[in-house]
Structures are given as C-alpha cells and as structure tokens.
Amino acid sequence: MTTIAIPPGMPQYDDVPRYDVARVRADFPILDREVNGHRLVYLDSANTSHKPRQVLDVLAEHYAQHNANVSRSVHTLGTEATEAYEGARAKIAAFINAPSPDEVVFTKNSTEAINIVAYAFSNASLRPDADPRFRLGPGDEVVISEMEHHSNIVPWQLLCERTGATLRWFPVTDQGRLDESGLDDLVTERTKIVSLVHMSNILGTVNATARITARVREVGALLLLDCSQSVPHLPMDVVDYDADFIVFTGHKMCGPTGIGVLWGRSELLAAMPPVFGGGSMIETVAMSGSTFAAPPARFEAGTPPIAEAVALGAAVDYLTGIGMRAIQWHEKELTAYALDALATVPDLRIFGPAVPVGRGGTISFALGDVHPHDVGQVLDSLGVQVRVGHHCARPVCTRFGVPATTRASFYLYTTTEEIDALVAGLEQVRKVFS
Amino acid sequence: MQLDQLYQEIILDHYKHPHGRGLRDAEGGANTAEAHHVNPTCGDEVTMRVATDGSVLTDISYDGMGCSISQASASVLHELLSGRRAGEAFEVHEAFVELMSGRGQVTPDEDVLGDGVAFAGVARYPARVKCALLPWMAFKDAAARAGVGVSPEVKA
Known about the structure:
Radius of gyration of chain A: 22 Å
Strand content of chain B: 15-25%
Number of strands of chain A: 17
Order of helices and strands of chain B: HHEEEHHHH
Strand order of the largest sheet of chain B: 1-2-3
Number of domains of chain A: 2
Organism (chain A): Micromonospora musae
InterPro entries (chain A): Aminotrans_V_dom (IPR000192), Cys_dSase_SufS (IPR010970), PyrdxlP-dep_Trfase (IPR015424), PyrdxlP-dep_Trfase_major (IPR015421), PyrdxlP-dep_Trfase_small (IPR015422)
GO molecular function (chain A): cysteine desulfurase activity; pyridoxal phosphate binding
Strand content of chain A: 15-25%
Cofactor (chain A): pyridoxal 5'-phosphate
Shape of chain B: globular
Oligomer: heterodimer
Protein name (chain A): cysteine desulfurase
Shape of chain A: globular
Number of helices of chain B: 6
CATH class of the largest domain in chain A: Alpha Beta
Largest sheet of chain A: 7 strands, mixed
Structural class of chain B: alpha+beta
Number of domains of chain B: 1
C-alpha cells in the first residue's frame, strides 16, 4: 500500500485543509450529465478542466451587463469593462504572489506565452542595442527537458533555427523523474534560458526546481517554468520559486478557453522587445516609426479576450475560496488511491512516478498491448472520459518505447468512486480485447 | 452508441489475426513502391507496399503499429485488393472512402467491400474515421508511386 490518506479520527486528520467534494461538484453543471447512458466520469482535467457556475455566471454577466472594449473608451461601459479586466489581472497576480499586476501579461494560452518569450529573444537577437540577456546566436544554448509538452519544445527549436543557437535537454529517468545528474554540464555559461515544465502533463511528475534555479543563477541564465499543469493544482508563489517567467492557461484551472498568462519579472518584461504589433501596445505611432507601451500592454496587441480574462479572475476567486492547499491535498489522496487501485489491474504499466510523492494527479499507463485508442473507446462507452495518444509529449512516449498512452487526470471535483469506475472499465477493456 | 457496432467481430478478428502482414519483396519483374503514413494525433503508423505488373496489384504488403481499427483496416485492405486489377482496386478504394465519409448514413455493398462492411459502424465515430482510413490513404500514395492510377480525393 502506498496510501498516504490519514483516516478520520486520527489526530493528524485535521492538520490538512479539507473541503466537501460533493458540494464542490454541485457547482459544476456538466458533472450531472450522462455519457452513452452512463453517469459522466470525467478523468481528463489535465486536458481541460470543467467550469463552475460561478465562472459561467461571470462570463455571461460580463457580456450581458458590462460589454465594451478596454483601455480606449471614456464612457461608462468602457470604464466598467476596463476595471473588470484590470481587476482580473490583479487577482491573478495575487494568486501567484506576483509583486505587481503589471507583471501579468494576458495571452491566448501557455503556448502563446512561451512563443512571446521565444520571439522576444528572436527580435532582440536582430537588434544590436537589445538587452544582451535576450540576444542569441551561434554558441549560445537553450535548455529544455525530454518531458516537455510540444509547446515548450517547438518554439525553442524554431528559435534555435532562426538564431543559430543550440537546443539541449535534460533526460528523463526510468522512474519518470527529471535526470539532473548532468546539471552542471548542461546548464553552463553558454546557457541563455532554461525552459522547464513544472509538472509533466504526461508523467505527472512535479519537478523540484531549487537545484536548477541555483545553477541558472550561477551561470546568469534565465528560467522559465511551464506551469500549465501546476498552477491549477497547487499553491504557486513566483517569488518563492525565484523564476524569471512562468506560463499557465486559464482553461485548465476552471476558467474559459482563450485566456492564458505570461508572468515575468517586471525588469525583464521591460527589457523585452515587443512581439505582436498593433493597437494598445504602442506609446506613439508615426509613419516614420513607433515607440512602445510599458509591459504588460506592450505584449497585448489588439483587443484582448476581455470576458475570458474577467472569468479567469472569477476562477481564481473560486479556487482561492476552496484553498489551493486543500485542492493539492485532495489530489494527493486521490493519486495515492488511484496508484493503489491501478496496481490491482493485471498487465497495467504506469509511466511516471509510481508513488504519490513529487507527482500530481495525472497518471499515464499502458494496459497490456491494447492500443490506447481502443482503451479510450471502451472506457467512453462506459461514460469514462480519459485522454489517449501522445499527449503532445511525443519525446516521452519515445523515451518509454510506446506510441501512445492512456491518461487519467484528476481535479478538485474528482472522487474515488470515479477512480473505481475507471478500474472497472479497464476490466471491460481486457474482456473485449482478450 | 453501442460499442459492438464499432468493434465488430470481423474487426477484432482481423486485428488479432492479421492477414498478409509484413513487408514483402516483389516477385521478379514487378514494380514496387511504398508509402509510410502517420496519424499525428495518435501516433498510429502504417507502411503500405504495392507490387504491380502495371495492371494487376500482384501483392499489397504492410506493416504498422496502432489501434485495432487502423491495423484491422490494413488487413482488410490486403485481403480485398491484393491480386486485383488496379481499376477494380480503386473502385473498392472509392467505396471504402465513401463509406467512411458517410457519418453512418451510407449502406455498404458487401459484394464490393467484403469484410470492409464491418467498418460501417466506425463511420459513426468521427474520431476514429482517420484510424480506418490511414492504411487506405497510404495505399493510395504507394500505388501512385508504383505508377498505377489513383482514386478521387477524400472529402471527409
């Protein structure tokens, strides 16, 4: 038994924050629906989370009552919309303990946020007067890892192609942990940026960043953490983590699609050249040339996703109301339960840490030699929604010698009964393909 | 939707006991070519090799890895098209593509499609249509490379 659950009645039971999962579930209308004649069992929150009524209501109310463009109108609606939009920025800054709301840049998603940083490097590399920390060329290095989502691989591959810099990466151990054994050889004076996933979307691994951060500081490089899978699930404090940039996306944390965040230290954002040009990001425009607004506006060209940002602010309020420590603990107990339960399924192989330590509630596995598509299809017929495929992390699949995996992922509304339904569904899969 | 519409016995049979699997060298004199196709969303892969004397597809061999639907589809393709005249083969190809693009509204002709009729249920699962078509699209490319005509484009 790997379980770390503390039984009710034990003195330690009250030491961890808890919440009533049934009451939380009642906030999510979609959890009531049926799929293929069965009660919905949603185990795909790493892909996208569901949205509570509190967020849906704010989204609808914004359009119904406060709709106007932001940062460019003197009228009442424009002021209300701007206040709501900037208010959301402040909420999100507080949520991750950012020193200032101006360090929060709204983007479309994590992918766009990473691309903004990569293109800022690219643009700076073309300008001799740009901040040298962002100038890249042959001989310089960018470091990522083998467990990245494609969104934290491809932008850097493209950047290295454009600038002549070299892309290097941390390998992954057989247990699905980051292999830091070569840290000092990998992160060197040649390194300009280390861009690392905080929690793997496929292995579930939560990377310990302290040693890497220390090395990054030692060599004078920058550190970006891809927190797409961590900010929704655990307390994040950008000061404590001592990162330079973090990125995350709203739809995985009870918010709408189309809104994400790039957080950067203000001094760094101020040193970055713009990436997208257009309205809102300028200071003054003349036919002979333009000057640019200070961050965050510099990186928010055009009309932003206003209602989505406001609704993300509501999502942050919702999560804060329950408590991120409580959510983290709930998922830790679920993960321990699920690892034990999955261990009872014959021929099941887990990719990633097999113990509920240094990992989150995202578990990838293979069931014998049944293809994950077939696993997912049979589970779907029972109402169980899991993700199958390479999870936009093909290098991880290659590392473990499989074309694809099946992945179950949990969130604040997931119950142990749903994990039981998954295990029962896997029995059905075995029957169909025996 | 009923799962057994998707996983018909015929499909599971072809998956568990594939016909003609494994890439083969052509008999003397035949022209061969192959195509490797990948489904980028799931990573399924198949290589189809076509051997032809210019009018008859003397052998269609294949290898791949993937889900039951894609691998069974390759087995059915081999069974249906190996040894057929190119023109006939492309008629069958067209019928299969039409079936898969029909969202479950097309009634397949067993005389034309043989075991391929078992895939009628797959057409109701939009996420799986590409799995079923993967070997057929690779076959089309391989045939073109081997110098035999191609059937119309897929309109899925």
